[in-house]
Amino acid sequence: AHRVFGYIGSTGTPTASAVFPLVTEAQVPWIGALTGAGFLRSPFVPTVVNARASYTDECAAMTTHLVAMGITRVAFFGQDDSFGGAGLSGITLSLKFHRLSLMVDSRYPKGTEAVHSGIVAMLSLPEPPEAVSATSSRFCTPLRLWGRAHGAGPL
Is the dihedral of CA 14, 16, 21, 26 positive or negative? Predict the structure, then answer.
């Protein structure tokens, strides 16, 4: 009834999750979604034009680079929402392609500083991860401190 021609932009997977059913039901073009979420790509939706690579593509490139460097012990730390889930899916798929698996999957509630359980999960591993795929900078400072305490290289 509003005679919308199309939808331009939006940032983030949670926003895309809310917008996607609206634009597909109304059959209007959506141009420039700034998210790597897979549901905008598969199955193919001809009215959606993405503004960035998929999380799966980004994780595949990252994992290929890590494996080429000899890194095989990878952990995941991300927020517990659709964005974190999409990142987890991407890293898990790309590791599987290289016949590897995650050492640990740690999540924290979105919008909180509750990263302690992720640190504890990594400290409890028999060997520390060589790389951590994280969907947020909230984990970076505690991770750097943990890495320095355990003799890790540059993080």
Answer: positive
